[in-house]
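Two folds, back to back.
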Amino acid sequence: MDDILLLEAIERYLNGDMDVNERAYFETLRKSTPEIDQMVVEHSMFLHQMDIYSVHHNLRQSFQATHAKLLERGDINEGGELTAKGQVIQLWNKYKRVTAIAASVGGVIALVICGLALYFAPVVNGSQIEQLSKAIEVIKRNQQVQGNLINQVQTKLPENAKFISGGSGFLIDSKGFIITNAHVLKGSGAVVVNSKGQEFNASIVHIDQDKDLAILKIVDSDYEPVTSIPYSIRKGNTELGEQVFTLGYPRNDIVYGEGYLSARTGYNSDSLSYQIQISANPGNSGGPVFNNSGEVIGILSTRQAQAEGVAFAVKSKNIYRMIEELKKSEDTTFDRIKLPAHSLLKGMERKQQITRVEDCVFYVKAFNSK
């Protein structure tokens, strides 16, 4: 497709000017062609920047018009001072509404300029991408709406413990070893909840901040280990455009999402991550990303703040690297971890895959004890 025609098509797509059939065709083309998908994301960000500039420009013109009007009436001189000190009270009473409007416009301009400076200035990754862990405010809100605990089960939290953050995690060994993101575990301890609402005590076994990965171990007599893990963990890379799906806990119950791999690297060409076109929300951090064959290809971790549907996942091969490093240590705990090597989900319909997988995906709640 010609570049000019493609840009015109992207603009009509973003503006909602396509009819139903044309939009469906373009979305199919976007999913199957990562380069076009990336152009849509970049053009959306460009239009967003232009909108901000337009607002700034219009506000500045309004401020200048107000200033020119006051200058024309002789209320202020070229230096911006009142023409006569004795007129201060009289002019204030006469023009206090205009002055208030000018001050408001000036304040808004200052805020917009500040926002532009923050938007365009070089910044650290954290301000351009958002972690997908669930903040304590979200946990509290969910609890108020849906009850203090999932399905009203009795909590395993220590007395006087306070929730700090939350996210998702999934089994990497049938004996109860769970992997999640390091940034999910902001507290000193954790409990995990399965898709049936059963809560279990868990210990934090290891945290790797560099890879943004962490390992938990379920240590609860009520936990019944699964006989086998139905999925495998992929050692190699995944191809562009490959269809993927995820399960996680952006809410208090398990949520399914689907998308596709849109780039082989993550934010700022981070080689440890993939870019995925998928809807992801706070609470999805630590959730598994599966391909159609039921292989874990990544762990959802962050999303891009200025682009809708752009998320990033730590590559699954980093799980192998972390476990190999840990097995070289003196701690024999890690010798017991045996990562699943074969997927039992190949050839299954998606509904069947989800049914087999959901018991292995957990809601992770991190807490601090007083």
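---
second:
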Amino acid sequence: MGKSNSSSAFAAFLKRKGVELSAKRYGIDALGAMAQGLFASLLIGTIIGTVGDQLGVKAISDIGAFAKSATGPAMAAAIGYALSCPPLVLLSLIAVGQAANALGGAGGPLAVYIVVIVAAECGKLVFKETKVDIIVTPLVTIGVGVLFAMGCAPAIGAAASSVGEAIMWATNLQPLAMGILVSVLVGIALTLPISSAAICAALSLTGLAGGAAVAGCCAQMVGFAVMSFKENRWGGLFAQGIGTSMLQMGNIVKNPKIWIPPTLCAAITGPLATCVFKMEMNGAAVASGMGTCGLVGQIGVYTGWVNDVAAGLKSGITAFDWAGLILICFALPASLTFLFSIPFRKIGWIKENDLKLDL
């Protein structure tokens, strides 16, 4: 009886403090929010910085650099917001995010995700439990978070880097099989309420594997945009095509069969990217998981070309390079997904308004 009462009391305490131990809370809410933090810092910074570099305007490049430098704090604040942290805890997480991202190296986003969740929940547990809350709460939140980051972030970074290197090595060794696998899995991750960009950044996914990842993301985004044009018209085309295919997640839950055409497309464009066009992502790894969102994926591929030319690794940007980029990222996803969807509609696997969005 005593043990049961203790468990009930502890559960009541957690509820009062807003600590909810659930897969949805951490696996969907926190991860989805982290993606927003990543978008608002590293991703937009990458776009701005690339524009500045191409135009030769240092002020624009500097804006991008400042945005990218806030990646850790931005992700931490986003996660804290998703976990409903009190303001004092939320603000304290900024330092935690900076430490975890810096110490995590290649696995910075993954380190931030793990460390900030622990620090946030610890901070919530002590919030307003003492008369010197203004000292105790930030002390516990930052202390626990930074110490935890110092203990595990380097290992997370090393592990993530090793996994990314293994994927890239396997892709170079078996470009056909790995082109299919990487393209399909990263594309699926992009549509799920998780962050494909964070995954690619955490794994430092570049090279041929990064190119396959770009192909898979484009297959989902452009594929869903074109396949659902009948239902969603131009608003849906742009919302999904340069926004995110994640908008279709609610419809996928209702009818998973609508996910088959763009996924089949990814299984084709991935190996075409690795085996035929040798499309590599030698820009920022985060761009590998962005597809056509803000054209970040294409900007990343182009930036890689420019960097390779400057380093003497590539003689120049050819028409074949441009043809591959256009076909893999736009033309094939649009045409193949649409063609795959036709028999699905005829046999009733995709019905009228199955792809309708509330826009």
